[in-house]
Amino acid sequence: MRKLSSNNYHSLYKCVERNKQMRAMRDNSFKTLDRAITHAYFKDLKKKQGVTIIEIGGYLGVLLPKLVATTGTKQYVALEPVPSFYQQLSKRIEDLSLQSRVTTYNFGLAKSKKELQISLRKDATSLLKDDKREGVQTETIKIFNVVDFFVQIGLGCNSLNLLTINCEGCEFDVIEILTSTSLIDNIDFVQFQPHLIVFDDDQKYICMYCRIRELLARTHEIAYDYPHVWETWKRKGL
């Protein structure tokens, strides 16, 4: 397990200071965001053989076909824990005739294995934002341990070209755990969407956000950055 050094903590505090106006920074990122970048940035992967991609938070399969077309991957794994979303994701993959290229799993990832009820809020459905209003639909979802999943899928022995995460808050658990082990060394690109909206406490969010950036910075460097909206980190020396 890798821990933060005193220098890392100094950088983390500087990050917190830089991001005090996080909501204004996020709003500006939305204004300037190139919405194609989440797939177009990875066009050079098409030159590689055996490109592998894992998407955490497949939702209804919006990003998936764009990344498949852009990179030419024949090894795409998509995780979606919400059963109703998973059914729609599977149907979209079938409609696009991508079954031979895409493997799907109906579970999510976190620090520990569990099963729980989650409130449905369309694309804002989150483990961190429970909606207890009367009449709000809920579903039972399954969660597996981050390390267990990546080890079983072979990340310890093989490289992963792209890990893309859009899971309404689970990105903090996933990235912190991966960067605390040597598994992160086998991932070329880490793309994720940080979700300020699922936190009731801005200070808690910014500390977690800066922490995972500091952890990533030990093995990766920024490739593109729209603060608090979308960012990608590239493995150093790639």
TrEMBL record:
Provenance organism: Magallana gigas (Pacific oyster)
Residue stretches making up the Methyltransferase FkbM domain: 70-199
Listed name of the protein: Methyltransferase FkbM domain-containing protein
InterPro entries: FkbM_mtfrase, SAM-dependent_MTases_sf
UniProt-listed Pfam families: Methyltransf_21
